[in-house]
């Protein structure tokens, strides 16, 4: 298959899986409603609904992984490669100018005296 038709097929499978999963939810709600009307106790969902749910989830996971495209390796050094050590360690958000060293200033004590 060519790249365009494969992409269309995978997107169609993803859409079909989503519609099938919505149908599973509707069928489960309808089954619960039927049990309430017939005054039966709910024990579990029928096997056909469970099977359709599992198949839908597998189809969605498979097609979503292919729709996203090829995965790229995570490389931490790609952004840092072009920077120098001075700019890597520079974090302006941690700068503070209100610190304890101001108490060493000769003008600091004068500011605290009552007037």
Automatic annotation (TrEMBL):
GO cellular component: early endosome membrane; EMC complex; Golgi membrane; plasma membrane
InterPro entries: MMgT (IPR018937)
Stretches that traverse the bilayer: 12-29, 49-72
Membrane topology value: Multi-pass membrane protein
Keywords: Endoplasmic reticulum, Endosome, Golgi apparatus, Magnesium, Membrane, Transmembrane, Transmembrane helix, Transport
GO molecular function (one): inorganic cation transmembrane transporter activity
Domain of life: Eukaryota
Annotated localization: Endoplasmic reticulum membrane; Golgi apparatus membrane; Early endosome membrane
Assembly notes: Component of the ER membrane protein complex (EMC).
Function comment: Part of the endoplasmic reticulum membrane protein complex (EMC) that enables the energy-independent insertion into endoplasmic reticulum membranes of newly synthesized membrane proteins. May be involved in Mg(2+) transport.
Protein family (similarity comment): Belongs to the membrane magnesium transporter (TC 1.A.67) family.
Name assigned to this protein: Membrane magnesium transporter
Lineage: Eukaryota, Metazoa, Ecdysozoa, Nematoda, Chromadorea
